[in-house]
Amino acid sequence: MQIEKQIAQIQNIVDDVLKMALSKGATQAEASMSKVQGIAVSSRMGDVENVEFNNDGGLGISVYVGKHKGSASTADLSKEALALTVAKAVDIARYTSEDPCTGLADEDLIATEFPDLDLYHPTVLDPKKGIELAIETERAAMAYDARITNSDGASYNANMGMRVYGNTHGINTGYPSSRYSLSCMMIGAQDGDMQRDYAYTVDRQAHKLKTPLEVGQEAAEATVSRLGARKIATGKVPVLLHRDVSSSLFGHYVSAISGGSLYRRSSFLLDKLGHQVFPEWLNIEEKPHLKGALASSSFDAEGVATKDMTIVENGCLAHYLYTTYSARKLGVVSNGHAGGIHNWIIGDTGQSDAELLKTMGTGLLVTELMGQGVNTVTGDYSRGAAGFWVENGVIQYPVHEVTIAGNLSDMFANIQAIGAERDVRGGVQTGSVLLSEMRVAGN
Amino acid sequence: MLNNVKTHLLSDSGLDLTSLEKALGQIYHHDNDYADLYFQSSQHESWVLEDGIIKEGSYNIERGVGVRAISGEKTGFAYSDEISEQALLNACKAARTIAPEGGKHHVAGLQATSVEARYKANNPLLAMEDAEKIALLRAADSYIRAKEPGINQVVVSLSGVYEEILVAATDGTLAADIRPLVRLNCSVLIEKGERRERGSAGAGGRHAYSFFSADKDGRPYYEVLADEALHMARVNMEAVASPAGAMPVVLGNGWPGVLLHEAVGHGLEGDFNRKGASTFSGRIGERVAAKGVTVVDDGTMHDRRGSLSVDDEGTPTQHNVLIEDGILKGYMQDKMNARLMGVKPTGNGRRESFAHLPMPRMTNTYMMAGSHDPQEIIASIDKGIYAPNFAGGQVDITSGKFVFSSAEAYLIENGKITAPVKGATLIGNGPEVMQKISMIGNDVALDRGVGVCGKDGQSVPVGVGQPTLKVDELTVGGTA
After folding, report:
1. Residue A113: exposure state from Cβ atoms within 10 A (0-12, 13-18, ≥19)
2. Mean pLDDT of all residues in B16-29
């Protein structure tokens, strides 16, 4: 079936569900529905391991009875299940309290333009082709170095689907999207030390993925380079967060400036609008309509139009991120961040990764972070790390079993440089980040 | 129970045991060694109180069937969110292609597995009126506000799951289970000048919601949890920077057992060991922990969050000794990895839902008690850290490096607990840290029932536990 027809079908279901909600006593309602089809295949030690056929769908609805809200969702899309889901949502609204801030997004903020964002590039879902890619990737990795002794496998994923959103203000829109990825995790051994690492590539277009040779070799190289890792002495040193892990730093920033954290007073960036948080040269641009990007959308999870924004301007906290509810709690209006952010481009200082190592001189290059030791209320940060010890801009040896710790306020202010080589595989596109100093705990 | 589940998952969709045998037979048209069908239906609800009002309520339903075909080390998998004969056959035809045509095996006749129930087959969503659930949230909120006048941020949430599953496999397995699961969580934020600190506490298990209002040490359980959340926030309000570097650490009993989950648990899962990917691979019979350390994984404990009467492959759960007096005894297995390694399944085959593949997973993982008084353990340390409460952790099973983050911790100075310190990540190497356990307390306890374990993108509820422990050296990721 043509994807346009499928979307139209789902729009009809959303329409029916919204009407059903109104007929059951809701004064407002919103529903979103998704359907994704895909394959996930993997190889291990040169042969097929798993072949999975994925077929996921779900519908979520929120109803408002006056200022009382109820929500329900279902992964079972039969008529009976949909009717039960709507009835349950309305029923729940009988028990939730009156809340003056609840309700649909303001009507004037709802998206009216839906440009083609180039997110859908279908291919035939062919497990055989996927297996070939996975096996080729793994083979490239195994052949890369004799110290690669074992494999945790390579996998290829292809997913195509659609998302539809509708509410009783009248919006009912949807779009298709696709996503492909190829990844590989290898195990290396030397002198009794065993290490693993991985590499991956992801894109909305299958032919834009890195080649199996590139992914395999990257995984093998990363794995081998970790062999012989040791701890380093406890102390204060500069830290360079490699671009594979540096986006997490801005992920913490997202949590801290989200409206939900603010109205709950659970952020170390409370009452900091307009304040200098990052160095003056740092800008963060949000570009929701970037063609073909992984976090593009013309509307957010509440149907609010997304727009280009300068989130951080000259190092200052220019915008908090609001949903309809958090905005009302704080006396402002939504800026289209229900469901998260849409393509953040972090400004850089122009250096290559090699130049960043030189700028750092002596310090710790971090290529892996472990654990959840980040407290958004206080900004306190303490995470496990692995990477490389660097002297005079040159990598000396691999490091593991250490922690890096500090406070996010200081870490943001202490960003010395950001590399020009960006990781574009997620919602935050950033280069490697050089921090002037962090507390490292080791021996 | 089997009959009830059969009615809901099969008869209501026009299926019976003969149609399941027929579907399994379809998979055996190809050269597969094993196949199973996993039917599941679940209902989940949650209620959230915030700002003194019942802010959110939600209800979720899920229903479907997953079909798995295994040939040697290869697995084919397909699923459908519709339970019908046609959908089942389509999934079987997709999954069986993992092996070439020309089957050699016959499906064994389905025989009901005898299952000892480890929890009551009640539906917690129906066992209490919605108005009562709301009243429970309000009671916890009022209690906290009375205990901490002027507090602004109180969030209390209640959630419950009712799940029915049925497994049928080519080896003749036929098993069903009804799995209730509830949870209550209290989260508070207190302010003092510019400083703000959060505290939270939760509990749960395979109970009805009445578990939370039932008596615990002479008062309703929710009051105990509310006090614990307030206590954590108040302690953290006074916390100073944590020290950094390698030092002795005393871990409290109960929830700090997340140490075992990360340091040894994952590394002892059968799939990693079959593949030789774990730091514990090929080490059965070797010393991997200090003398006195006995670690078990036990899915049979009554009403526990991590417990299962049968696992998701229809194998009854067991009390599995993983490490005995410091010696590695065995791994946790699902059917596939057990077969490939030539051992018996241990009842650890678990999956998040019908739409996910089963794999070896933990249930309730804990360390048996030792002989030391917890006070004596503290008193043995000149300078170190006492950590009675944790947030999550993570492990690299290949290198053995693991982390877990403290949520409440104190300095130990000259054998005494002194100033509270800020949360910090602790990092170590599993087998090394286990050999540095030098004192084991006599106060073994399991956690309150809040654990969620993630592996390969799949989440399952688990339990952890341990007595108070002294680790001679762990790296503490503080800032001081």
Report:
1. exposed
2. 96
Contact across the interface for A402 and B427, Cβ inside 8 Å: yes
Name which of A210-214, B108-112, B167-171 the model is least confident about: B108-112
- Contact call for residues B265 and B302 (beta carbons, < 8 A): no
Q: Are B327 and B264 in contact (CB under 8 A)?
A: no
By C-alpha distance, the chain B residue nearest A35 is: B81
Q: Which of A97, A99, A200, A399 to mutate to test the interface with B (most CBs of B within 10 A)?
A: A97
pLDDT in tens, B59-84: 999 999 999 999 999 999 999 999 99
Contacts of B424 in chain A (CB under 8 A): 373, 382, 403, 405
**Predicted local distance difference test score (pLDDT) of residue B414:** 97
- The closest alpha carbon to A226, from A397, A440, A443, belongs to A397
Instruction: Please list every residue in chain B whose beta carbon sits closer than 8 Å to the beta carbon of residue A371.
Output: 392-394, 403-405, 425, 427
Q: What's the pLDDT score for residue B2?
A: 87
Please give the domain boundaries of chain A with CATH numbers for all domains.
2-225 (3.30.2290.10), 229-443 (no CATH)
> Which whole number is the average pLDDT over A312-316?
98
What digits encode the pLDDT tens for the residues B175-220?
A: 999 999 999 999 999 999 999 999 999 999 999 999 999 999 899 9
Size of the A and B interface in Cβ pairs below 8 Å: 245
For A53-83, the pLDDT digits (tens) are: 999 999 999 999 999 999 999 998 889 999 9
Residue B32 has pLDDT above 90, yes or no: yes
Other residues' Cβ atoms within 10 Å of the Cβ of residue B324: 15
Name the residue with tokens 């890619």. A133
Percent helix, strand and coil across chain A, each to the nearest 5: 25, 40, 35
Residue by residue, DSSP assigns A364-403 as EEEEEEES--B-TTT-EEEEEEEEEEEETTEEEEEEEEEE
Min Cα separation B133/chain A (Å): 10
Contacts of B404 in chain A (CB under 8 A): 371
Residue A1 pLDDT more than 80?
no
Nearest to A223 by CA among B399, B278, B279, B270: B399
